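Hi R.,

Here's the input for the pterin-6-yl-methyl-monophosphate complex you asked about:
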Amino acid sequence: MFPLTRPAPLPPALAGLERTAVMGICNVTPDSFSDGGRAFTPGAAVTHATGLVAAGADLIDVGGESTRPGVAERVPEAEERRRVLPVVAELAGRGIPVSVDTMRASVAWAAVQAGAVVINDVSGGLADPDMLSVMAETGVVSVLMHWRGPSATMDQADVYDDVLAQVKAELATRVQAALAAGVKPGAIVLDPGLGFAKAGRNNWPLLTGLDHLAELGYPLLVGASRKRFLAEVSALGQGQAPPAGRDAATAAVTALVAAAGVWCVRVHEAAANAAAVHLAQVWRAYHS
Ligand code: PMM
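And here is the predicted structure with pterin-6-yl-methyl-monophosphate in place:
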């Protein structure tokens, strides 16, 4: 177990949390892999997000671009803004902490102006040369995920000798780039990027080796929710379980990584994951 660390510049409701935060996913897309289409209009997205908060989510991650392996096409910037910004503004206006899931610096900037308190860039600042400057200028909590290229081709980038050591080293490189761009160390959160350029077997060393990633000195975010590698464990039917049927496995992972001390889990379903986080909080309290 490593200490539960959290990034500094957060709204009081999140900064005061003594447990892993639950980040509810609100994909405003017609094509995300597990929930695409469910929250495609702004009104439906807000309803979905407030339902996640009612079920126990501490913050909501709003995204307008699918990252589905192999097939995701880039969404034009104007369309991404049209999807994301009204939802960010509405949720922030209701006092809900909002994260924006985007690889575009301009969208991240506009979302922070609309009230977002976290920038979540799955490319770790690699997809848009201006992203790290926006992270630095806004000063908000910034998630740098391990990434080896766009979703359309990332499955081919899944080549590792030692996945844990290489992901750790590549995340360290992103941290150096962020610090060089002026991002404050206290704003940085790291994410191993489960399922991104990682075949099923490559996700497990990352999940079980989180203490090694924590040695980098930054809070961690884990996004295992409903991902394909969960369905590959035999009890779930050798890859047959549909994404929403992976919620039980997701909650099990949440309990384990929350007990290990991650800052945040990014999940599609809130109730079971919030319960898992609370259980892990008790577990940590009794752990000597
Ligand atoms: N996974 C997805 C999208 N955004 N962001 C972070 N930080 N970590 C992740 O693992 C992550 C992410 C893909 O899942 P989705 O299509 O269900 O949102």
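One thing worth noting: The beta strands are 21-27, 59-63, 98-101, 118-121, 141-145, 188-191, 221-222, 264-267.

Cheers,
M.
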